[in-house]
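Blinded run. Sample ID left blank on purpose so nobody reads anything into the name before looking at the predicted structure. Input follows.
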Amino acid sequence: MALFDLPLDELRGYRSRSVEPEDFDAFWSATLDEARTHELDARFERRTDSGLSTVEVHDVTFAGFGGHPVKGWFVIPAGITEPVPLVVEYIGYGGGRGLPHSHLLWASAGLAHFVMDTRGQGSGWAPGDTADPEGSGPSLPGFMTRGIEDPATYYYRRVITDAVRAVEAARSHPLADASRTASFGASQGGGLALAVGGLVPDLAAVVPDVPFLCDFPRATRLTDRMPYREIGDYLKTHRGRAERVDRTLAYFDGVHFAARGRAPALFSAALEDQTCPPSTVFAAFNAYAHPVKEIEVYDFNDHEGGGPFQQAVQLDRLPRLLRG
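Blinded prediction complete.
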């Protein structure tokens, strides 16, 4: 696969044309205020059947958007008695929280690790356990177009709200150090990590790998690959609604969340990535507000990005950020 997007020197200066809604902050403030009218009700159930001896696993349920129950895993090093830094992870598109032994990296590094299940997803490549009780109007198969003609009904309003509440739930555990919390994820999870970074003011780090949900005006018109293509296919059928759809997507664009980032950030991008084109990742990186930010670039990789090489970078840098 050849390079298909802008050359690297242009990527480093690229800026999105996504127009931020005037009521962006008011929209999200009202959304989160409504969610917090429901008790968080975070419940941590110790699991003794995981077969794991070096970590302790908890099956978690908390109230997300609309008070709906959202599942998660909380994994910590076995035997700890004092709070440790916390990594809150979000999952890639189509996947669910899977099984506990799939989430050993951060607990093995001595950190607390909370993995949020994604409502309605979890049948693509890893199983999930969280329903999405909200319906929507006509939509294309997938999640990108559910309720897409109104920000109030759009699917990602619910998911991003869940993601913020996941931080609150994870921080409620007595062995999680709330003052040293990172949002983390790849692809869709990276987009959610960015959103949380813009909505939660006191994170210690934000770590988005090849993030999805960024620079919608460019992404939806540049790549033919799913999931962005779901939006193009919707508009192919629902002719004349592009302006309305673009208006909705602006409330969920990682570029605008990045402009509110208040913690050090570690991004990654892959220059042959046709799922999350590198210009869309750089759009978020270049807009990111905190002055301490880095981006690892993988020249000849597609959406897999840096894979274990990027994990090695994260293992080196993230604990230092979290431990101050």
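Unblinding after everyone has recorded impressions. The domain at 8-319 is CATH 3.40.50.1820 (Rossmann fold).
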